[in-house]
Amino acid sequence: MGRIGDKFESLRAKNEKALIVYLTAGDPSLAVTKELIFELEKAGVDILEIGVPFSDPTADGPVIQAASQRALKTGTTLASVLKMVADIRLSSQIPIVLFGYFNPIFAYGVEKFARTASEAGVDGVLVVDLPPEEARELRVYSDAAGLDFISLVAPTSGKDRMKTILKTATGFLYYVSITGVTGTAAPKVEDVAREVGKIRKLTKMPIAVGFGISNAKQAKAIGAVADGIVIGSAVVKLIDENRNNSELVKVISNYTREIKEALR
Amino acid sequence: MKTLPDKNGHFDIFGGRYAAETLMPALLELEDAYDKVRKDKSFIREFDWYRREYAGRPTPLYYARRLTSVLGGAKIYLKREDLNHTGSHKINNTLGQALLARRMGKKKVIAETGAGQHGVATATVAALFGMECKIFMGEEDIRRQAPNVFRMKILGAEVVPVKSGTATLKDAMNEAMRYWVGSVRDTFYIIGTTAGPHPYPMMVRNFQSVIGLEIKKQIKKMEGGNPDVLIACVGGGSNAMGAFYAFRNEKKVTMFGVEAAGRGMNTTEHSASINGGKVGVLHGNKTYLLQDDHGQVRDAYSIAAGLDYPGVGPEHAYFAATKRATYVTVTDDEAVEAFSFLSRQEGIIPALESAHAIAYAMKIAPAMKKNKTMVICLSGRGDKDAQTIIETM
Ligand SMILES: Cc1ncc(COP(=O)(O)O)c(C=O)c1O
To answer: Which of A64, A139, B184, B277 would be a feasible disulfide site paired with A60, CB 3.0-4.6 Å?
Structure first.
């Protein structure tokens, strides 16, 4: 088992839920992203999702769209993100999932990507626009390189669809808690509980829930029915609001610490 | 040629369904629903009826006598898609998709639009079938295609301005997809061209293929056989694929798809994804894309809002890769010249998009023999472009 599986196992033993935090790499700069990652690890964040910016993020709401645009303006590329992960790995064992869209990976070369990502210490990939039907062209290489392929289940996925996804998902399952793009609504706990319950009947894999969770109260309620929660837009927004604040890193780590408390 | 796409929407390496999971169930449902109506006699009858009685099909295949004699070569015919109700070929597709939406019980429709022709054609069928309609349109296109914005509003549609990127067609499509992710349970997305995730490229092609089927019949009657050359402009590729598809197995028919070279192929300001792009994935399919070395999609540019898109339908990518069709380019200046030329020679004001096809015909017709025939798909009329043309004068 890799770092992701080990992490969920050790959390389970402690009866804790995973806090997964999403950051858009390169917003406001790759140097700050790196600093944030080290601080977030200390603050108790369990897994990091590092967003690789893309020009046309069709599954993202306004907050992450704007962050992607800023990151691209600072010259962030898939290659520079992979290099950053390699640097982090010299001194950190936090599980890292690369989150993004297929075209930058395709342009980089799928085989080279899988090899470089694995060597850099990436643990998993989540490619939003690569459903199981299209995933083969990446997975021939990413599976062989030992990268987990994190799959999404949406509120619109019925039982048959869930089964199809579960057949090939690895690492953990990511349940999208709203019918919508990232960060545009707050999830309804009853709905999430019901859908997660359905997925549980079909798999033993850990289930994380994300898209729209923004505070400790929601985190606690959803953490109670899942194995982990993902915070994305809320953190990205906070980073943007504090971009000129010299205490930026502290503000973010305090925020995530509070959320992690709610998951213990 | 084999029958494509395969069951997952692939045209060899192109096409597919690169879509977010939230949309996958809707795409599979759409595929199923479309599969049923394709063979359903009552649907075919209904679709035919609306095309004939409402849209005004068949459209004429007009022998352009003056154009032919001034250019002095091939005999030139114009397929008059501009004479369809709403002024372009777009209604062929929106009627098909709206009828399908109605059968699926969806009462809300959305669409992206560039030139506004697809927006108008969608707003029109939404009015006709009593559906709620939202059209996503880039702010730059709202400015340069103002007459069509008024038409959509008159028809009762809501026009949603899109500010992101260059505020043109690509950005409108991004925003329509995002809106669809959130409204997919009760909303039908009427995509306006042979792009998007499977089954759209196949479905739109089939709805538009009436263009080529009519050409085939009409030219047979007038000339006794197939045309030697077919020319159409290519944005996403729906009028071109509509014209080409019936001839895909007719090896003697030479087909030219005309891409927009904008300010020139030696600049970055063009929309020629086949001639100036690389294979990539955008808006649910794999195709030729204008992009940088890192896989970031580049902004497209063309004076014709309907061609201003960095991708191209996957079946055109396949036709290009297999050399079934040849893809060429025409600049803004050449298109503007052709716009005036056709207006003055034949009394037909073409859409700036269609003027790209005319411009290419003007390049090759003179060198062709007089006994050769050429059909140009005149995809739309140019009233909407009056403002843009005045600005170039
Ligand atoms: C008149 C006309 N022709 C052509 C196009 C380009 O689209 P397609 O390539 O799908 O035919 C448009 C698009 O708006 C149009 O309005």
So the answer is: A64
